[in-house]
């Protein structure tokens, strides 16, 4: 099931791709080529038959000499998708001594296109090494690539050889024929280019617009959907999906003509489903997953694929290439640019051919392509990414070790080096070539890097890659290249860098945000234990026996026995718990002895000195009492008597100075020595529950820390002997040293001593034995205990007799069986259990389980079913009834109903029951919160934690929903106003009200606000509110009467007058030349203006008094002169930061520049005065000097002159006198 779900995801990803380039034809690209079912025809309409097959490497199709009909082969290929150009790619091989006049020709008849290629001189090639009798024959390879204008719905392709010698002397061979269409825009029927406005004609009767674009079929009545290439239709074929323009999503081209281990693949040879006992990795079927991958069903996932599977990540896939045949030449040349090449060994297939083939995959570089050359990879983007993750695999090959070197450098990071220093471990038939010797060395290396783009300004990734080889047969290659950009986690998750670096899911749910996501069971927005949810896991109070979804279903109850006696006028209660046999005594409660019968009838009763009681356990006592043994005792110690046994650590009772008591002395079980204690490997412990484990450990559901096997870490003093970063068994290490795969016995250093049956020991590895008559699954298809060819099995692979048309598992059959059938004896028969239903089968569910709807490919209903139709039960036998597709016994259901009643009797309001079924549902709660206080007014919000509504029996809305009162104050001492934020109605909504309470006297004691819900309110499940009364303590408040407020206003006016007088004297002193007096007055005024910012909650009268300092603020005068906008232009801000306290109260911006600007203006003013000081001094001297004034005044103003002189003289003497007194 996992394999099918994963492959369905791959298909959907392929379907969502919408590219201008589309591969419509791929053939002769399998490692083993068969010509039995090919559509290619020779000149005489026969089929080509000759294929060059070597021991290793890929098969090649042979073109005959010019005298033979099969020197030319033709094929007609459907190209119905609208296009304007094709890209044709063929790998061409020159076999042996090709002459200068021997040509390989390609032609397209409908375009009258023809082009030739000559692979000469032949000695530029390499000798064959893996073709037995054909060894030491030259093989020269070139790649033919051409872009050709084409728009027809069929392509008539012709391939021809002009050699005149026999095959052993000279011949042309080829493989990997690929045709890629340059498609038109989706609404164009014919076009001149890929643009939307490059249409030549439209579908059906849609008219071509003036800008050469075509509309979709949306406006056509009854035919709204555009099915490419058929035209407008009333629905998409096979009810497929469609895009925003109602263009049907095209079907994926799937085929069963795949590699030998693949069952189903795309036309680009990317395998989707492998055969049994094979693992799928990047479109290839393998015997086992690479060690650096994760096994997910039958798929091998790299770390980067694991990240892509997580839905809580915001990831964009930037590059995914070189994993099948879909990577085109144009895209390769776009991503990679050649920087330099040092010799003639590289690019032997063509100067701009940067890729080659290995089996069903096109890789970058490869043999004869990338030997000694340096490339630069470049990829840019426009999105904002935090990290870029890069993954690719490097293939290195050479005839000897330690000679092939690859270096790479990502952006500005350090250069890294990979050296071919060891041979690939295992069998990989995909990496082979005919020109390699038997001792050829190769290996695959993983490269996985991450770049932090928090501090990167450029949005570009560059990789400089250089391959250096001393041998011509050495090469470098890159496959399975994936690059993703990581933006962020979804809003409900936090980013964990360690998980990101180790390939785990980096997005961790935020515990405490009141949103339940991921592996969270609950989230109540706090970290309080025993409140139903703790650390985002359901948890009930400590006295609960059965906890369900955070609610206690069955509580712990202890039968209590009381006896009463009088000793020295002190009343003593003896409390005996029958379970623990512990005795302790209570005390007098406010001088009152409680009724014993009433006390016995209440199992969950706290005494009257307790303020907060939860099911018999007191958590908070009244003033003058203190908590002891979950009870409140009075301050007078002489009224308390202890009897029998004193409490101790380990008695199960949490005493003073004890954090916990679990009645044992076990280490690391959550409580030790009455102190909270977590697992020894816990990094962060909270109330005995581990929240974060140490590095190398994983946190389990019961808050323990276990070793993380498979994290590539070996922790000291632990049980790990090794860690190879996987959890694959029998690969030498499973956190303990183990034998190699298929080894039966090995010594202490894991050297294999004896292999399992069917294997032989070679170089400490168990290798399958071919020819022993024993079939080793996964390695051998068959084993007939001989080496006779054409007898059904040869070299442990199926092989039919020569000239067999269709070979199926060693049997030559006369026809091809359809999918879901197999050849048996002389006909095709159905395969029962393959999940495919063929004509002779009623059903096929892929298993042999009875009573599941299908058994032995026949319909089969559930047990005790009487009426069965197509695997679905329509009626049960007598004594049974049908429910949820099951026939249930009526007798058992009656017992189950009784169990339901027993389960819900303690929590009826948390269950919704119908007939005999009950479902858990939490009832709504009323909650209250204090918003803020503004002197005499306090603001409170009351709301419900669910959407609620009025009960349907309520007749009208003209009633009060709440009864609101202050319990410790008379109703005449305060005034209450209720403001609806969202008023209640008959439909369910998030209801919220705001309450304003204004005190009319001084509130010296904190008032206790009590709100009672006085009407029936329910949620959508008609559950009533479980908590109909809520309380909250408000703040103390001083009442300011109208008389006192008037006095405060008069005081503020007096303060303003004093400030104005002070400012006037300071100005006069500045004019008179006494600057020290000016500075002192300004200091006093500034100090008074700053008093209001002291972090003390002033009463309202002082706030009124301090408001007089507004005349000292520059902003006041800017607003009066209406030039405050100029000030805002000088100090522009997009948004103001959040502030609190006095800054918020007085609306003061804490920005440094805004607050320092007045000082800058003052400094500029003072500098200006200093620069003009000399002129001012001369003017002042001139003005004050009596002789100058006398000269100014005329002779007829002698009296006026005397008056002026006396005034200035007296003013100066007066100012100096005041200054002498003040100083």
Could you explain how this protein is built, in words?
- By secondary structure, the protein is of the alpha+beta class.
- 16% of the residues lie in helices and 34% in strands.
- Strands 1, 3, 4, 6, 9, 10 and 12 form a seven-stranded antiparallel β-sheet that branches. Strands 24, 26, 27, 29, 32 and 34 form a six-stranded antiparallel β-sheet that branches.
- It is extended and about 140 Å long.
- The model is unreliable at 1-18, 558-603 and 636-645 (pLDDT under 50).
- It comes from Paramecium sonneborni.
Strand content: 25-35%
Structural class: alpha+beta
Largest sheet: 7 strands, antiparallel
Radius of gyration: 45 Å
> Rough shape?
extended
Q: Which spans of ≥5 residues are poorly predicted at pLDDT below 50?
A: 1-18, 558-603, 636-645
The total count of strands amounts to 80
Q: Could you give the distance between the termini?
A: 96 Å
Helix content: 10-25%
Give the overall pLDDT as a whole number: 78
Number of helices: 16
What layout of secondary structure does this protein have?
Blueprint: H1 2-16, E1 21-27, E2 41-42, E3 51-52, E4 60-63, E5 72-78, E6 83-96, E7 104-108, E8 113-117, E9 126-127, E10 138-149, E11 154-161, E12 170-183, E13 188-191, E14 199-202, E15 225-227, E16 231-233, E17 254-255, E18 262-266, E19 271-274, E20 279-281, E21 284-286, E22 294-296, E23 299-301, H2 303-309, E24 313-321, H3 329-335, E25 336-341, E26 355-358, E27 361-365, E28 373-380, E29 387-398, E30 405-410, E31 416-419, E32 441-452, E33 460-468, E34 475-489, E35 493-495, H4 497-501, E36 507-509, E37 532-534, E38 537-539, E39 544-548, E40 551-555, E41 560-567, E42 570-577, E43 583-585, H5 596-600, E44 610-614, E45 617-621, E46 625-628, E47 631-634, E48 670-672, E49 675-677, E50 682-686, E51 689-693, E52 697-699, E53 705-707, E54 743-746, E55 752-755, E56 759-762, E57 765-768, E58 792-794, E59 797-799, E60 806-808, E61 811-813, E62 821-824, E63 827-830, E64 853-855, E65 858-860, E66 865-869, E67 872-876, E68 880-883, E69 886-889, H6 890-904, E70 911-914, E71 917-920, E72 926-934, E73 937-944, E74 948-950, ...
Antiparallel strand pairs: 1-12, 2-5, 3-4, 4-12, 5-11, 6-10, 6-12, 7-8, 7-11, 9-10, 13-14, 15-16, 17-18, 18-19, 20-21, 22-23, 24-34, 25-28, 26-27, 27-34, 28-33, 29-32, 29-34, 30-31, 30-33, 35-36, 37-38, 39-40, 41-42, 42-43, 44-45, 46-47, 48-49, 50-51, 52-53, 54-55, 56-57, 58-59, 60-61, 62-63, ...
């Amino acid at each position: 099931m996992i394999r099918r779900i994963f492959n369905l995801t791959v298909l959907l990803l392929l379907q969502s791709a919408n590219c201008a380039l589309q591969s419509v034809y791929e053939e002769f690209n399998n490692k083993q080529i068969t010509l039995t079912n090919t559509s290619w025809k020779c000149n005489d309409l026969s089929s080509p038959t000759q294929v060059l097959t070597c021991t290793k490497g890929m098969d090649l199709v042979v073109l005959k000499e010019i005298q033979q009909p099969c020197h030319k082969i033709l094929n007609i290929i459907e190209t119905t998708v609208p296009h304007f150009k094709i890209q044709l790619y063929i790998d061409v091989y020159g076999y042996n001594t090709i002459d200068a006049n021997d040509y390989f020709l390609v032609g397209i008849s409908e375009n009258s296109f023809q082009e030739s290629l000559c692979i000469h001189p032949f000695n530029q090639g390499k000798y064959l090494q893996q073709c037995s009798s054909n060894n030491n024959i030259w093989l020269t390879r070139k790649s033919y690539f051409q872009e050709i204008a084409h728009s027809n719905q069929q392509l008539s392709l012709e391939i021809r050889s002009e050699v005149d010698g026999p095959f052993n002397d000279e011949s042309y061979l080829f493989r990997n024929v690929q045709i890629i269409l340059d498609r038109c825009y989706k609404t164009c029927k014919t076009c001149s280019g890929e643009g939307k406005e490059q249409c030549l004609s439209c579908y059906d009767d849609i008219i071509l617009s003036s800008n050469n674009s075509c509309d979709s079929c949306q406006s056509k009545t009854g035919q709204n959907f555009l099915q490419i290439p058929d035209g407008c239709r009333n629905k998409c074929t096979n009810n497929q999906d469609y895009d925003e323009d109602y263009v049907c999503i095209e079907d994926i081209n799937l085929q069963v003509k795949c590699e030998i281990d693949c069952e189903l693949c795309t036309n680009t040879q990317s395998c989707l489903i492998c055969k049994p006992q094979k693992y799928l990795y990047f479109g290839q079927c393998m015997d086992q997953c690479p060690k650096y991958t994760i096994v997910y069903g039958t798929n091998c996932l790299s770390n980067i694929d694991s990240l892509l599977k997580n839905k809580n990540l915001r990831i964009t896939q930037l590059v995914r290439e070189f994993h099948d045949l879909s990577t085109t030449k144009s895209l390769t040349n776009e991503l990679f640019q050649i920087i330099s090449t040092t010799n003639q060994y590289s690019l032997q297939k063509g100067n701009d051919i940067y890729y080659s083939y290995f089996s069903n995959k096109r890789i970058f570089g490869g043999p004869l392509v990338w030997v000694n050359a340096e490339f630069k990879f470049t990829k840019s983007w426009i999105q904002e990414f935090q990290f870029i993750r890069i993954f690719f695999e490097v293939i290195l090959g050479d005839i000897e070790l330690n000679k092939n070197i690859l270096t790479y450098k990502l952006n500005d990071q350090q250069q890294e080096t990979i050296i071919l220093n060891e041979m690939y471990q295992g069998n990989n038939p995909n990496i082979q070539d005919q020109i390699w010797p038997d001792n050829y060395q190769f290996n695959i290396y993983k490269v996985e890097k991450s770049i932090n783009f928090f501090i990167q300004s450029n949005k570009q990734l560059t990789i400089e890659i250089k391959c250096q080889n001393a041998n011509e047969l050495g090469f470098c290659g890159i496959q399975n290249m994936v690059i993703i950009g990581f933006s962020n986690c979804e809003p409900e998750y936090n980013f964990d860098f360690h998980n990101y670096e180790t390939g785990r899911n980096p997005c961790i749910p935020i515990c405490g945000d009141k949103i339940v996501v991921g592996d969270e069971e609950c989230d109540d927005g706090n970290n309080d234990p025993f409140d139903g949810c703790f650390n985002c896991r359901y948890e009930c109070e400590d006295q609960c026996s059965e906890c369900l979804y955070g609610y206690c279903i069955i509580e712990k109850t202890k039968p209590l026995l009381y006896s009463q006696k009088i000793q020295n006028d002190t009343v003593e209660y003896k409390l005996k718990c029958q379970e623990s046999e512990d005795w302790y005594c209570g005390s007098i409660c406010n001088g009152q002895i409680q009724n014993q019968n009433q006390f016995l009838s209440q199992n969950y009763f706290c005494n009257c000195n307790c303020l907060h009681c939860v099911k018999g356990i007191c958590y908070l006592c009244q003033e003058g009492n203190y908590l002891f043994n979950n009870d409140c005792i009075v301050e007078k110690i002489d009224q308390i008597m202890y009897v029998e046994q004193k409490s101790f650590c380990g008695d199960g009772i949490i005493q003073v100075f004890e954090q916990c008591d679990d009645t044992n002395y076990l280490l690391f079980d959550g409580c030790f020595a009455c102190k909270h204690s977590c697992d020894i490997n816990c990094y962060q412990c909270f109330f005995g529950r581990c929240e974060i484990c140490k590095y190398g450990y994983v946190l389990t559901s019961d808050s323990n820390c276990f070793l993380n096997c498979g994290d590539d870490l070996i922790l000291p003093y632990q049980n790990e002997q090794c860690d190879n970063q996987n959890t694959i068994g029998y690969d030498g290490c499973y956190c303990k040293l183990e034998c190699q795969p298929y080894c039966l016995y090995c010594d202490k250093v894991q050297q294999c001593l004896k292999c399992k049956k069917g294997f032989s020991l070679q170089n400490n590895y168990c290798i399958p034995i071919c020819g022993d008559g024993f079939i080793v699954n996964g390695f051998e298809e068959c084993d007939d205990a001989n080496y006779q060819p054409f007898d059904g099995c040869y070299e442990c692979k199926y092989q039919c007799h020569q000239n067999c048309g269709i070979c199926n598992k060693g049997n030559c059959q006369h026809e091809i069986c359809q999918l879901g059938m197999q050849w048996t004896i002389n006909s095709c028969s159905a395969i029962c259990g393959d999940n495919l239903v063929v004509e002779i089968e009623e059903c096929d569910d892929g298993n042999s389980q009875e009573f599941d709807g299908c058994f032995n490919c026949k319909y089969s209903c559930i047990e005790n079913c009487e009426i069965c139709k197509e695997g679905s039960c329509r009626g049960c036998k007598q004594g049974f009834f049908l429910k949820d597709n099951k026939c249930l016994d009526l007798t058992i259901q009656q017992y189950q109903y009784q169990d339901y009643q027993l389960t819900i009797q303690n929590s009826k309001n948390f269950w919704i029951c119908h007939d005999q079924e009950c479902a858990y549902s939490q009832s709504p709660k009323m909650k209250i919160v204090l918003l803020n206080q503004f002197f005499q007014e306090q603001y409170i919000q009351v709301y419900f934690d669910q959407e609620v509504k009025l009960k349907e029996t309520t007749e009208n809305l003209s009633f009060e929903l709440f009864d609101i009162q202050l319990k410790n104050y008379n109703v005449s001492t305060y005034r209450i106003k209720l403001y609806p934020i969202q008023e209640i109605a008959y439909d369910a909504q998030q209801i919220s009200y705001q309450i304003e309470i204004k005190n009319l006297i001084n509130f010296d004691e904190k008032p206790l606000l009590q709100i009672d819900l006085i009407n029936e309110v329910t949620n959508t499940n008609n559950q009533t509110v479980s908590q109909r009364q809520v309380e909250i303590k408000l703040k103390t408040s001083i009442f300011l009467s109208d008389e006192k407020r008037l006095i405060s206003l008069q005081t503020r006016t007096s303060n303003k007058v004093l400030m104005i007088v002070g400012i006037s004297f300071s100005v006069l002193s500045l004019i008179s030349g006494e600057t020290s007096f000016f500075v002192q007055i300004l200091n006093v005024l500034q100090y008074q203006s700053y008093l209001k910012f002291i972090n003390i909650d002033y009463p309202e009268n002082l706030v009124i008094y301090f408001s007089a300092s507004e005349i000292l603020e520059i902003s006041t005068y800017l607003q009066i002169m209406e030039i405050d906008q100029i000030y805002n232009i000088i100090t522009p801000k997009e948004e103001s930061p959040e502030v609190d306290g006095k800054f918020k109260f007085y609306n003061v911006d804490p920005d440094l520049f805004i607050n320092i600007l007045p000082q800058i203006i003052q400094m500029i003013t003072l500098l200006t005065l200093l620069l003009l000081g000399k002129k001012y001094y001369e003017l002042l001297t001139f003005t004050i000097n009596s002789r100058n004034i006398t000269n100014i005044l005329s002779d007829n103003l002698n009296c006026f002159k005397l008056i002026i002189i006396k005034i200035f003289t007296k003013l100066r003497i007066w100012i100096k006198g005041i200054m002498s007194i003040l100083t």
